[in-house]
């Protein structure tokens, strides 16, 4: 049976390594056999305090799977994507037969190299409704996308403020990050700190709900939700997250992802109540126009930027 060529292996591997992952851990392994490419979870990258149930690890694997599918399509193969429920497997892409990629496939594939996490303020220019509709049209696979309305921002900001204060007091969480330090330096004086940036540190300056809500007015807040809390649901969340992110980049937008607040049970419950969500919130995405020049991905301080805190 035919196997992947050396050039194809390089393309697949590069696409996977450019996927966002929790604290840049890249908690997956790419396995190739015949014309099949599989993503396996690597539980040895567990983060017991930040990600005790491994949800972010599986979301990371889902993002890698999304990139893998696009790479197979870009190589000119009709691709079948499957998600796996039995550990350590999370999903696979099989090349079925030769088929040219569509223009949409190539647009999203090219966005892989340009995607990064935007940890600064967004421009005051609102995202046009038709552009937002195009971006979130890439959702599916059992994952619902909820756009936070303007009159809901203050309630969401208050929930994020409470979550940040709880996380800031968790010594075990901060000790765990010491071995995997991710340095965020906000170039805007006085703007550093989560939930504005995403990752709460001991010394983070946490804005009050009113201040944060005012900042959020310049961006689009999406909440990705799933009906169940199974492995496959988290993998699919990562798939949809990455598709939306790449579509945003292709449409001239920037984005970042927050999952850290949702590790606080009260945050998940409060968010579901305030937004009248019939399903469980899994992650929060921020979308908008950049306020300044977009940094080329090659300038990023870390090769595999994070998702679980402020995915990048």
From TrEMBL:
Region (Disordered), start-end ranges? 290-312
- GO MF term set: oxidoreductase activity
Q: Which InterPro entries does the annotation name?
A: Nitroreductase-like, Nitroreductase/BluB
Task: Please name the PANTHER family in this protein's record.
Answer: NAD(P)H NITROREDUCTASE RV3131-RELATED, NADPH NITROREDUCTASE
**Protein name (record):** Nitroreductase family protein
Q: Species name for this entry?
A: Amycolatopsis xylanica
């Amino acid at each position: 049976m035919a196997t992947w060529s050396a050039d194809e292996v390089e393309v697949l591997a590069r696409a996977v390594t450019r996927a966002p992952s929790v604290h840049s851990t890249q908690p997956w392994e790419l396995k190739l056999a015949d014309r099949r490419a599989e993503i396996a979870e690597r539980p040895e990258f567990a983060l017991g305090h930040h990600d005790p149930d491994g949800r972010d690890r599986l979301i990371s694997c889902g993002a890698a799977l999304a990139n893998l599918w696009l790479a197979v399509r870009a190589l000119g193969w009709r691709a079948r994507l499957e998600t796996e429920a039995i550990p350590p497997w999370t999903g696979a892409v099989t090349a079925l037969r030769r088929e040219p990629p569509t223009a949409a496939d190539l647009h999203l594939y090219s966005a892989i190299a340009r995607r990064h996490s935007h940890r600064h303020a967004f421009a005051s220019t609102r995202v046009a409704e038709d552009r937002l509709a195009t971006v979130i049209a890439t959702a599916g696979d059992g994952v619902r996308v909820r756009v936070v309305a303007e009159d809901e921002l203050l309630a969401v900001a208050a929930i994020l403020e409470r979550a940040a204060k709880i996380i800031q007091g968790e010594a075990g969480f901060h000790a765990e990050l010491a071995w995997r330090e991710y340095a965020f330096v906000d170039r805007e004086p006085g703007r550093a700190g989560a939930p504005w940036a995403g990752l709460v540190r001991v010394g983070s300056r946490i804005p009050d709900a009113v201040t944060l809500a005012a900042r959020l007015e310049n961006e689009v807040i999406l909440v990705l939700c799933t009906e169940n809390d199974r492995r496959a649901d988290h993998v699919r969340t990562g798939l949809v997250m990455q598709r939306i992110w790449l579509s945003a980049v292709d449409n001239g937008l920037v984005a970042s992802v927050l999952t850290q607040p949702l590790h606080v049970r009260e945050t998940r419950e409060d968010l579901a109540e305030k937004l009248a969500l019939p399903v469980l919130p899994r992650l929060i995405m921020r979308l908008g126009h950049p306020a300044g020049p977009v940094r080329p991905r090659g300038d990023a301080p870390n090769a595999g930027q994070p998702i679980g805190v402020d995915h990048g």
